[in-house]
Amino acid sequence: MPPGGLAPGTPVAGRFTKWGGGRHWEWVGRYLGADEHGHWWYSPAGTRCARPGADFLESSGWVSLVPHEGAYAAGFYPAHREVSVYVDMTTEPVWQRRGAAGSDSGPVWEVTMVDLDLDVVLTRDGHLYVDDEDEFAEHRVELDYPPEVVALAEQWRDRVHEAVAAG
């Protein structure tokens, strides 16, 4: 968790990896603040989103959330998007300081988590579902997810699904 006093507007890098250290989604936003749910940051239209095999400028902004405690990362999307809420099950997010404050080398803070495949998705028309269960089943064997990591992903999938369903 970042130390108290992280100022709104501070650049924050979001970095997903895959089990075993492979790169996954990376983007930069601006810290909004923290509340009882966790830490929030905003990424405006034009934000560069990159992972192996994909690199683009996002056409609309979104808000990201990582909890104070928990193993997920959530994205909240604008009304014109088909998906309203997209929650990745992850390892517990880890905050770390990068570089020196005020340097031109990019964001001072980064939050990193391992994407564990399972996603809870809420569409704009109210359809709630769990996505990528097949990928999770494959990767738990191919990437040799430890039993405690499997249990963590399944536990948070169930908790997040219940919370999103409850509104």
Automatic annotation (TrEMBL):
Descriptive protein name: DUF402 domain-containing protein
Lineage of the organism: Bacteria, Bacillati, Actinomycetota, Actinomycetes, Micrococcales
Start and end residues of each DUF402 domain: 26-166
Domain of life, source organism: Bacteria
Coiled-coil stretches: none
SUPFAM superfamilies for the chain: FomD-like
Cited InterPro entries: DUF402, FomD-like_sf
